[in-house]
Amino acid sequence: MSRRVLIVDDEPRVREIAASYLQREGFDVREASDGDDARRHLGEFKPDLVILDVMFPGASGLVLLAEIRRAEPSLPVIMLTARAEESDRVAGLEMGADDYVVKPFSPRELVARVRSVLRRTRPLHVAIPVEFGPLRIDPAAREVSFDGEVVDLTAREFDLLAFLAASPRRVYSRAELLDHVWDSSPEWQDPATVTVHMRRIRQKLEDDPQNPRWLKTVWGVGYRFEP
Known about the structure:
By secondary structure, the protein is α/β, with parallel strands linked by helices. The protein contains eight helices and 13 strands. β8 (130-132) and β9 (135-138) form a beta hairpin.
């Protein structure tokens, strides 16, 4: 069955190019030009992933992202931003976007990003849960729980936590995490993306995000998971 992708952007040419390349790669694509159209497709089309422009008439993409996160915390979202909108990129990541692509973008890069995010959201049927005291990570269910309570993580937040936890105490640089978790590199992706996602996971998981128990910063090097 084809994976479903919803493109939300007010520029017809952007939607046309993105849809054309995605359809060529076998994706089932729907397009929306504004917030109301997007909400209708979210309810009827039920996409597996949303490509969302930061700005479009009627509502900010960040407003729609917040609505998506409240309704479907694990639905993958890739933000489209203009090159000068660094603050919007950071805001999108802080609010739970899984990835971002800067306009003007390479259609092949966009397809690669979509494949990367969707590949990592599929259940892993052979993986077994791992437990570290009250923390339980279940790769097959793509679920994290703490003291028996499920922690709502986005797809990319789960990927990052699970990857670090798979090699306890192993330190990874931000460039290495971009490579392993995002299938990207500092040439394509701002390493601050990793920093933002780490901060979000700590806010959801740690009792004291400023003094984390599980996700440690190794200054000048990167991050590690402390078992």
